[in-house]
Structure formats: C-alpha cells, structure tokens
C-alpha cells in the first residue's frame, strides 16, 4: 500500500466538489471538541453533532472547534452550510492529498497543511492533512484522525500560560501553525541526529546496513521536504495578504513563522546533500575494500600457482627424466621456489600492493 | 518507432498553416458527436459532417461537439471556416506534437493539452493531443482517436449529477480539464504505487529485474512530466487572463485546477528523485554483494592454493628426497597444513572478511 | 580540429569592428542570389556583385537577397555601406561564432541564428551561422556556405503555394525562421528515434557499443541545445518588441514560432535526461553481469580447489602413509569429495549464487 | 551528539516567545562588557548586571555592550525591558538555531548571524549564533560563549587605529559584520588550501585516506555554506532598507560587505564542486587500479593453470600410459609448455593487458 | 600554495580600508606608463612617480595611465588622493581577491575584473586582478604584475589602426574590456580543442591518463567560470546604467560585449558538461574492460581447474585403485576431459562470454 500518496480510486470520475474521502478511514464516529476561552474564563465541550458545536460558539470568546475524522461527507456538508464555506473548499478538505495552500475567503481564511507524525521511534513518517478555517471569533480545525501536535497548546490554554488567553482567534491560529512547524523542526532534528551518527561509522569496516539506513533517511527527508516546501509560500502569502484575518499587530509572528519554515527547508536540504555525499563516499569505500581483497587474492594466487606448477613438473612419471635422479635436485627445487617468491614479492612491493 | 515524439516527416517543408496530420491515422471516418443540454433538457446526436453539427448548435444550451480523428485536413478546414478559427490554430490542432498552450482569440479560447492513456496495466503510456475551443455557447473538442477520459462527465450530464447541467459552457470546459488532470493524478498514483513497491525488494537478493523496472518507471514519469509541466503555465494564464470566456465566478475552479496540476508535478518530481535514489542504492548493493563474492573466493583460494603446493611438493618423484622416508613426515604434513589454515583464518578474521 | 567552436586565432588582437572571417572558407566566390516577387510576378537573378543586387531591389515587391560565403570582408564592407548597417553588426556577421541574438536597428531588424546541418545520416551535426537583415522591402540572408534549409520556401514562392506570394517581407522572414526551427525539430526527431531505439537493446547482453552511442548522442544533443536555446529569447524579444518590422498582424506567427522553439528545447532536455538514465542503467547492468561472472568463477574455484588439494594429498610419496594401503581408501576419497561438493553447493545455494 | 543542529528538546511545546536556551550552556555567569568611546576618550567596564551596563550608556559616545553567555532567560528578559525589544526577538536571540536574518524595529536594527569557529587546526567547525542590536548610540552584541572574532576591532578602538574612533555606532556595527565576514573568508581560504593540496596526491597510489579527507572537507564546506548563504540576503536587505540606522554615507561599506559575502559563497561553491570532481576522479582511479590488479591475476592464472594441468596429466599413475615411456616425452613436455606460454603471452599482448 | 585563492593572512584583522596587498609581490618598483593621444598626436612616457603621471594628463587627449605592480600601499594612497577615489575602493584594488564588479562614482566609473593568463602551453591558468578607473579624460588601469592582454591595443593606438585614435576615453575603456573578453574566448577555445581531442581517444584502450586530463581541464574551466561569470552582471549593469561615463553612442559596443561574455559562459558550461559525460563514459568503459578481463579469467579457470582435479585423482597412490590398471583408462581420461571442456565451452558460449 502506498504510504506517500493517497488512494484516489474512490473519487475517480466524481464531479468536482463531490465530497469523497480518499484517506483511510480510521475512526467510526468523528470527534467534535470545542475549547472556548477569553481572559476571564474557559469552557470545554465534546459534541456529537457539528450543529451543537456551531450553536455553542460565543462571539466574545475564542472558539476552537476541532474535528477528528473527516471521512463523513454528510458532516462536511453540514460544516459547509453552517460556516458558509464553498463546495470546492469542502472537497479540498475531504480529499486529503491536497497541495498545502492558503485560500482566502470573504468571511474566513482557509489553510491546508500537512501535519507529520512519526510512529514510535522508527524512521517512517506519515503526513496527515490538517485543514484550518479562521473566522472572526472561531477556528475550525479538521484532522483525518485523532492524535495531533496541539497538546501543549491545549495545556497552555487551560493553565493560562503564555499570551494565548489574552489574545484573539488569529493568535491561536498562529500558535497552531507554530506547533506544526515546531513539530517539523523536531523531526528534522531527529533525522539530522541519525544522519550525523552515520559519520561515526562510515569509515569503519562493519558498516553493514549503512546503505539501507542512508536510503531510508533520504526517502523520509525527501517526503518531508515535499510536505513542508509549499508551506513556505503559504507563510509568505499570509505575510503579504492585506485581507487576511491575521491582525497587522500579529504579522511579526507570521514573519517569525516564515523564518522557521525557511530554516526547516534549509536543514532538510543540508541533510539530504550530506546523505548523498555519504552514499558516494560509502560506495568509494566499498570499491577501495574490494581492491584490498583483490590484491590479497592476486598476491596469493600469483605466488603459489607457479610454484604448484613447478612441483607438478617433478611429480610427473616420465621414464626418461634426468633431473629426478640428480642428488641436489630437491634442494635446487627449493632454491628455485624461493627465488620465484622473492622476485614476485619484490614486484608486488614495487606496485605498492603489499 | 518512436513513442515519445510524433513523426513529422509528412509535414516537412510545408508552408506554415498547411494542414498535414503528423500522428498515426487510426480511424477511417472521423466521429462527430454533439451533446446539447441545459437545466431543462438534453439532446445527443451523431453527425457525419461538421456542417450538420454546426447547424444543430442552439444558443440557449451548452453545445459540446466532440470530434474523434482529426487526420482529415478537409474536415479541419471546414471547422476553421464554420467557427472562424485562424489557419495557424488549425495547423496546431492537426500537428499533434504541439507544446501544450492557451491561445486566446476574439470569439474563443483555444487550449491544446496532452491526454495521457495507459494501455492495459502495462507501464507504457501514450500522450494524445486534445484540442479544445471554448466559445460562448459551445465547446469543441478534437481528439486524435476514440477513447478518452470524459466518460464520467458524459455520465454526469446524462444523469444530472453535480452542477454541470445548471452551469454554462465554461464550467463544462473546466470539468473537462479537471477530468484530464484527475487522469494525470491517477496515473501518477499508479506509478507511485509501483515505485513504493520497489522499497520492499530493494534490499533482497533476488532483485533481478530491478534495474529494468526502475529504468522503465523513470522513463515514463519523465515523459509524463514533459507532457504535464506546460499545463501549469496554461492554468496560471487562464487564472490571470481577463479576456477569457471563463466567468469570474468560476475562477475558483481554475485556481483549484492549478493547485492540482502543481501537486501532480511535485509528486512526479518526488517519485523521480526516489527512483534515482533507488538506482544508486541498488548499484551500491550490487557492489556490496560482489565484495561478498570476492571475499569467499579469496578466502577459499588463499587457503587451499598454498596447501595444494605443499601436497604437490611431496608428490614429487626425486630420487634423493629425505623427507619422504621419515616416519613422521605424513603427520608433520598435516600439522603444517593445519598451522597454515589457522594462521590464514586468523588473518582473514582480523581483516573482517569472515 | 574543433567542431563545436570556431577558430578565432585569425581575429586575435584585431580592433572591434574589424571584419575578419573566423570560419573555414569553403567557397571561392560568394554566390549572390535575388528572388523578387509579389502577387503578380516573380523574378530570380544571380549576381556577381552585391551592388548589382542592391540596384535590382524593387520597392513594390519582396526582395530576398541571399549571399552564400561571407568570408570576403570587402563584400561585407560594401553590404554595410549599401544597407547602412553599423560596423559592429558586420563584424558579428563575419565572426561566425556569435551568440544567437536579435539586434533592432533604425531601418532594419537584424537576427543572428544557428542553422544546423547533419552530414549524411551520421550522428554528427554542424552549426552554420545564419545572419538575417529584415528591411521594409527586402530580406538579406548571409550564410557561411551553400546549402540551406530554405529549398521548400523557394519552391513555395515559385509555385505560388501558401501565403508567401501575397504577404510582405516580414512574413518571408517568419517563413525562413520557421524553416530553421522545423529543421531543428526534424533533427531532434532523428536523434529521439535513435535514443528510443536504445531501449530495445539496453537489457540485451550484446550491447557492445552502447556506451559509445549514448555518449555521441548526448554530445550532439548538448551542442544542439547550446545552439537553439538562445533562440527562445530571440523569439520572445521579437514578440514583445514594438519597433520591429514584423507587422502586428503577423505576431501570431511569432508566438507560434516561440512555442515551437520551446517544445524543441523541452524535447532535447527530455532526451538528454533519458540518455543519462540509459548510461546509469547500462552501468548498473554491466556491474550486474560482472557479478554473474564472479559468482561462476567463485563457485567453480571454491569447489574444485579443495578437491584438488585432497587429490594432491594422496598423490604424495611418503613412505609411511597408512591410508594408501587401506582397501577402501579410494571409495572413501570419492565419498569425501562428494560430501565436500554437496556442502559447498548447499552453501552457495543458500547464498543465492546458484 | 549532533554538531550541525541544536537540541530543541528543552523548548518543545513552549509558548512562542518563551525564553528557553537551546544551546549547550558553557558559562556559569554571563560576562557583560562595555566599551565606550568617541574621538576624545575611551572607557571600558565589566559589569555584573545588565542594568548597570544600561545606566552607564552615554549618549555622546559609541557604547558597545557585549554579553557572553545568553542561556539566562532572566537576563534576556531584563535586556528586553531595558532596550524595549519585543518578546519574539528575545526568543530568537536565545533559541540559537535561527535562520540568519535582519529584523528592523522602530528604535533599533536587529541582526542574527552565524559566527564560525574552528577548534585548533582540525577541520571541524562550529557555528555560534551572534545577535546584534544597533540603536542610535549603542550596539548590543549577544554571544553564546566567550571567544569571538572581534579582538582586532577592540584593539583598533583602543589604539585609535583606523576610522572607528571618529565614526558613529553604525560604523562599529559595519566593522563587526566585516570581522565576521573576514573570518568566513579566512576559513574558506584554509579549506581551499586543503582542497588544492589534494590535487598533489590524487594521482598517486598511496592516496589512502583521500576519501575520508574529501568527505570531511565537503561536509564542513556544506555546513559553512548553509551558515553563510542567508547573510547575502541580510546584506542586500540592509543595502536597500531606507529605515535602517546605517547612515546613507556608510552604505558604501554595506555594498562592499555584500560583495565580500557574495565572493565567499562563490568560493565555497567552487571548492565544493572541486571536491565532487575529486571524488569522482578518485573513484575512477580506484577502478583503474583494480583493473591493473585483475589483469595481473588473470595473466598469471591463465598461463599457469593450463600448465599445471599438463604436468598433472603426466603425474597420473595409469598402468597403460604410452607417453611415459617415450624417450623424448620430457623435452616434448617443455616444448608444449613453452608453446602454450608463448601463445597466451601473444594473446594478452594483443589485448594490451601487458 | 593555493592557486585559486589569494593568501589573506597579511590583511587579517586590519581595519576596512587598510591598504594591505594580499597577492604575491612580483615586482620591486611599480611601472607607471602613460599613453596620451588624440587624432592629431601621440605621446608615451614612463614615470617613476604617480604624481608626475598625474601632472602629465592633458584634457584634450585620451590619457591612459597603466600601473604594473600595486603592492605598494603608499602608491595607492597617492593615487587615491590625486584621483579623489574613496578609501574603500583603494582597498578593493590592493586586495586582489575581489568579486568582479562595477562601482560607479561621482567623477569616475570603477571596474574590477579578472584577467586570465596561461603560462606557456600548460593547462594551468592564473587570474590576475585588473582594476580600471574611467574618468572624463583618462583611464587608469592597475595590474598586479607586468604582462597583459593589451599589446594589440597599444599597437592599434600607435599605428592609428581602427577607431581608437578618433574616439574618447570611454571607447578605449571598451576596447580594453573587449581585449579581456577576447582573451577569455581564446582560452576557452584552447580548452575546448583539448576537450574535443579527448573524443578521439576515449574509446581506445590506451587512454591511460585520460582521467587526469579530464580532471585538470574541468578544474581549470571551473575556475575560469568563477572568474568570468560575475563579468556578465558587470556588463549588464554598464548597459543599464544612466550615469556612467560610457557615452550613449557607445552603448552598442557594451551590448556586443555583453553578448560575448554570455557566449563565453555558455561555451564553458558546454565543455564542462562534455567533460562530465566523458568521465562517466570513461568510467563505464573501464568497467566494461574489467568485465572482459574477468570473463577471460573465469573461462580459463573454470575449464582447467576441474581438469586438474581429474588429473590429480589419477595421480593418487592408493594401493587399491582399480581404474589405474584398466587398459583404456588413459584414453578414457582424455575423452572425459574433452567432454568437460566441450560442455563448459558451450555453457560459456550460451552465456555470451566468448
């Protein structure tokens, strides 16, 4: 099953704007969660239907509705109606192999991003599509499945840490984006550490599964780059846009975000180029070692094959074979053998094979 | 016969604007089909001549004339007269190795694209030129041969699914373009699945026709990229153009299309770079395995060649050969042999060849 | 002798604007030919001097003066005086290793291009500089030597085929440029066919001169790309220029030309990248085959070398050698040999070398 | 432990603007140093607290406050309050894996750069983040640890060498930036010298740790490029900015700086491409030498293996073996052997293996 | 000693604007030469001091002061005072590892370029910094050492060849730049000829020092590209600049120069890419040849090693060894041997190793 691309077969030939989920359905019922806060207070609710969540929105507060599991096209249809989102945007939300982008609307800012997750401590990463709608009082986040990188943000809201509680919805949106990018950077750091670890073993003989490690790291970094790169343009567009819901005062945060994404991509490129160099270096090392092996074989074979021939001669059973009867034939044989060995050793020495 | 480029020899030296078909003629008589619809009704006709089709166009409806088989220059000439298209555009339609592009005219928007088809489930793909003329009430599509990616669209028109029946000709044009791009994405997904499958066997020993698979996938993806890449510019031009027949309300669809093509190209690049890494990795693997083979050969040969020499010595038939007559010569021979073997095994152990 | 670059030594240290021919002089006397036409009539003349040709120009007609052999600096000086061309432009005409470019003047448009020719059916191509001056009533084309790609155009003028006879000089200029580009495309098609032919033999064993073919094709395509690439900018400048002699009505032709050149360059890039993949694939194939060879050698040697040692032992002539006298020694030897062979065969089987 | 990327784990999940130091704390107490000068006088102080340093600033003089050791978030918080710096900027200062950039503020210009240091004469380099705040009368520099590239500047201030004492704070800022870039260039020169040294040994047989040297140099240059490249944009932004604290008169210095950084990056690219060529060349050399080894082995084995077989034949003990009893069998054996050797030598000679 | 980069150690830590020469001093006393001309007359002088040269400048003439040997910082200081040049520019002149650039001033145009020289006919090239100051009546050229590419220009001035004597100082500046570029082109032609020569021997067996030649050519071309590339931007800036001392009438010469530099860089890229292809091709050739060697070894060894074993068997001295006594054992042995050889030959034939 492909890991880097979603199976579109279910959506084949459907009209544009048809809401067909093309990911792997991992949740039976979508989870709808609302966090509602301002400087004074904080409410948290779990809802069964999106209508209830929509009615619970209070204008004086920041309302963050998070939906885990967006495979249900009816749910998405209702979201579209409640939040007045165009059909095409809904399709982009449910079709989870979208190019990360920023879609400004009249009464909302829509963002489509990739949230990366790493299962356990393995190298393999998975990209989950995160859709975000920012309105005046609310943020709507849509995820393919439960589990995200926003736990610290929920924690900060609940514990009143940082500026979140005293800021508006657009600052929460920035905080969410920042969490996504911070997650990118942590992943890159993990990969980077493994890439740098290779330096310690690349010139050792027992670098057995080096090729496999290099290949896997490069594949994942390649995929990571594909997932992150469009975000740089998204951040740049948000920075320049004048009709966004991000308040001008908070533009500095977006600038910082842009710098972070830039640095992330630079780091990926750096490590990918390191991995390429490592593979080339390893390849040349293997070649070098093969040369060593070949030299040993050649020296052994070239010395003993002539000697064996010499011994073979005097093992022949010819009736008329004068040398066999000389008294000093045997010592002479050893003398000849030693001379051959000496000459060949000198020859190989001169060739620097010894 | 070249598959990636059309044979231009027939058109050599002809005046610009001469209508010489340079593809492979696959149809005796062109097929002319008209689908005519609006919210209320739907008519479908097959015509023998393009004049009949032209006369059947009704202004209050969306008229989609599709022509399969454009090798007939007379037919194209008539199309030019009926729809007031310039000679040079007609030449671009019939000369089916054109660079995909957007040609705005006074009373039409002309688009030249590549429609990709994959025969059976083989890897090989073929690009067919699709020419499209969008006027106020009609769309004219010209194909090289029957068989296209528009079956689901015809189905949606007939069954009144989606928005098609309630929208104008420009929306149909978008739907057709969307079908072409969706087809690209399906192909990329197919290729991508095969590329990712290679990961499962690349570190196995029996990756016999790996090189061949990698090469073929890369060639097809390369060709696909060449066919798709110019479409990105076409979509961008359509988006920016102010004199196009695409209504401003439908620009969002074009934006979505642009994003889809962008994603398609990114995916191709990703898989091509994966294939390159796979070839490099496989190459290093082969080298590694050769090293293994060499070590086995070297160890065997280096151990037994000296021993054989030793045995050869005592096989000699010299008359004066004192060792032959000692009582413990034979056990001494074994002792010497075992010592040699031990020393060499230790030597190879230290070199980590065992 | 260099084929891809002209010998500049003759022009070393000369003042800018000095007219020193740096190509290989291939013609003793320049050939001066005038074709003069309009809708009504057609005249053709061969002249000995450029003055005569200049005087024969008739304002009401399209006058195409073609000069083959521009090594004569006096001739060029006269051309400069007659057509009022600046000295530096003349130098660019005679110095035939110029970067293709468009030089607009007050009373002319000057173009410098590369016309590619392929000797026989060999792979080798040659670039000849084609200089073109477009005035209001005339076109002046300067070639290094006789033989060009304009035969079909002359034919169309004479036979009144196409639009040429009814159009002005700027259309003729376009037709000439179109012929040059069509020639590029035909060459690329020829090369492309050969590149695709390689696919049929790359996985066969007897791909003996594959490396040589790939290298030669890549070199020629590389040179072709260098010669064509600047033309894309030239076409784009012509398209944008507002002070050119190309009439606005004919701009569509230039747009078409631009598309053709673009496609040509894309095709070259495609085939060059295919050739690179082919070389890499072939390299890995060779490596693979070497592995096969190595395995056969290793299996043979590793099996028979120990056996030969065994046989050598019992060929020794020790006096006290108990095994030699046992009745079942010989069958035991065979048993031991067969056991060794079996064990080794199983070992190599498990390693998948068999 | 990763050398090319900082450990972000301490800052994971913290609110943006939280001051968490992510480098390796190398200093217990930060060192705060103030140099205060104008044309007339010079004062130098060491302070324990940043408040004292702030109070010591005198408007009529250039005040350069340098802080070594910025792991203390309280200190940074105080700096923020005293110099009115936004929280996000402070975070960028303490989070020492930032993308080098220029952040203009209302009452300051902030710059984040990488200062490179090389421990001893080893190849390994380390990047330390240098943060700089330029106000009207003061410069604040923040370093991760003691030891910097500014010693010559302090010397020039103290000894009244150069223009420093007669210029304003912005000139000091330029001088500091210039020192950072000069340090880059010195490092590149060091690396370049080592890269060029490789040319002397690359075609010698004993290039044993060539691969390792090439790999290490390339890794360091790669890292250097990553650290320097963004500085080019920073310098360009400073040049264009109209609201910077750099006086227009001093813009020429910034232009010069921009040129220097540009040259530095070009030099890095040049040496990296040289190193790539060296690795490829070395790889082909190894291959060449292996070919030599193989030829020697093949010639030896191919000559003596048939001869040994021949000797083996006449060592057989068949009862009925006519050749054994002929008188000239032994000389005939030698004749046959010599013939075989001669034929094979000629064969290998023709193949140019000798 | 590094050849591609200048030793900056002497200038380490100096204040910006300090005049420290970082090249290799090759001249004891600077040579100061003045050529003074207009249409009527010509004067030439050698001076000991720059003051004398400055006083000899005559407004009605073109005054070209050339200084060979700029290691003397006092001299440069005086030049700065006499011609009112800023300190930073003087530093760029004496620090001879500058990025080629154009520095417009109020009363001058300053240019820094690389002049390339090739010692003898060796491959190695050296870049010398050429600084040029163009004022209204004068040109000042500063070179590191005697010997330049301007001999033909001096000749043309003296012999009144070309336009030089009738034109102003800006035309002389153009002529000097043109000589520098022409020298580039001659060098590229030299290198190109050598690159193309490789084509003749790359498929021959005795391409012994091919790798070394390819590597050296690529290194020099790489260095040449680094030295020339910035000149393209310099020429483009001169073309666009409106405040330059180049008169608008002479802009056509600058355009021509820009085209020449462009062509030079294209040619370098072309040859570098050819060299890369040559190295790859050569590498694959070596691999191919190694395959040949391996096949010969394998065929010889695989055929004779089993036969030797066979002969070894019948050389054993077992007492009970029935075959030894059969009458037809010896012919049977030969039959078996021939069968083995035949089978193996057929096997290798089928594998296409023969």
Major β-sheet strand ordering of chain A: 2-1-3-7-6-5-4
Oligomeric state as shown:
homopentamer
Annotation, overall tally of beta strands of chain A: 7
Shape of chain A: elongated
Low-pLDDT runs of chain A: none
Q: Give the end-to-end Cα distance of chain A, rounded to a whole number of Å.
A: 52 Å
Greatest chain-chain contact: A-B, 69 and 70 residues
Major sheet summary line of chain A = 7 strands, mixed
* Overall pLDDT level of chain A: 88
Task: Write the element-wise H/E pattern of chain A from the N-terminal end onward.
Answer: EEHEHHEEEEHHHHH
Q: Provide the β-strand percentage band of chain A.
A: 5-15%
Rg for CA atoms of chain A: 34 Å
Number of helices of chain A: 8
CATH architecture of the largest domain in chain A: 2-Layer Sandwich
Provide the CATH superfamily of the largest domain in chain A. Answer: CorA soluble domain-like
- Class inferred from helices and paired strands of chain A: alpha+beta
> What is the number of independent domains of chain A?
2
Percentage of residues assigned to helices of chain A? 40-55%
Task: Predict the CATH topology of the largest domain in chain A.
Answer: Beta Polymerase, domain 2
Task: Please provide a written account of the structure.
The structure is a homopentamer of 354-residue chains. Chain A has a 7-stranded mixed sheet, with helices on both faces. In chain A, a hairpin with a 4-residue loop joins strand 1 and strand 2 (42-47). The model of chain A has no long low-confidence stretch (mean pLDDT 88). Chain A has 354 residues and is α+β, with helices and mostly antiparallel strands. Chain A has helices spanning 50-56, 73-83, 87-94, 151-158, 169-201, 210-240, 251-313, 329-350, and strands spanning 31-37, 42-47, 62-68, 101-104, 109-118, 125-134, 138-143. Helix content of chain A is 52%, strand content 14%. Chains in contact: A-B, A-D, B-C, C-E, D-E. At the D-E interface, helix 4, helix 5 and helix 7 of D face helix 6, helix 7 and helix 8 of E.
């Amino acid at each position: 099953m492909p890991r880097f691309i979603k199976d579109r077969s279910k959506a084949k030939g459907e009209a544009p704007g048809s809401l067909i989920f093309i990911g792997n359905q991992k949740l039976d019922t979508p989870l709808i969660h609302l966090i509602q806060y301002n400087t004074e207070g904080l409410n948290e609710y779990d809802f069964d239907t999106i209508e209830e969540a929509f009615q619970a929105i209070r204008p004086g507060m920041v309302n963050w509705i998070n939906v885990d599991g967006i495979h249900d096209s009816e749910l998405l249809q209702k979201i579209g109606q409640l939040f007045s989102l165009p059909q095409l945007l809904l399709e982009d939300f449910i079709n989870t192999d979208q190019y990360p982008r920023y879609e400004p609307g009249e009464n909302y800012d829509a963002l489509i991003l990739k949230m990366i997750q790493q299962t356990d401590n393995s190298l393999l990463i998975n990209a989950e599509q995160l859709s975000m709608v920012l309105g005046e009082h609310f943020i709507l986040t849509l995820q393919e499945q439960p589990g995200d990188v926003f736990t610290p943000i929920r924690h900060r809201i609940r514990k009143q840490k940082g500026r979140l509680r005293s800021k508006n919805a657009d600052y929460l949106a920035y905080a969410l984006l920042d969490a996504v990018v911070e997650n990118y950077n942590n992943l890159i750091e993990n990969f980077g550490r493994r890439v740098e670890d290779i330096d310690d073993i690349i010139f050792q003989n027992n670098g057995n599964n080096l090729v496999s490690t290099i290949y896997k790291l490069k594949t994942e970094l390649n995929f990571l780059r594909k997932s992150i790169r469009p975000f740089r343009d998204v951040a740049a567009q948000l920075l320049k846009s004048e009709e966004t819901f991000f308040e001008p005062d908070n533009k500095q945060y977006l600038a910082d975000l842009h710098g972070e994404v830039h640095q992330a991509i630079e780091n990926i490129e750096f490590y990918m180029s390191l991995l390429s160099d490592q593979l080339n270096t390893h390849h040349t090392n293997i070649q070098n070692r093969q040369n060593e092996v070949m030299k040993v074989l050649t020296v052994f074979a070239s010395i003993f094959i002539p000697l064996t021939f010499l011994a073979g001669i005097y093992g022949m059973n010819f009736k008329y074979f004068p040398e066999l009867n000389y008294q000093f034939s045997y010592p002479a044989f050893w003398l000849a053998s030693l001379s051959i060995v000496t000459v060949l050793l000198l020859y190989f020495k001169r060739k620097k094979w010894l």
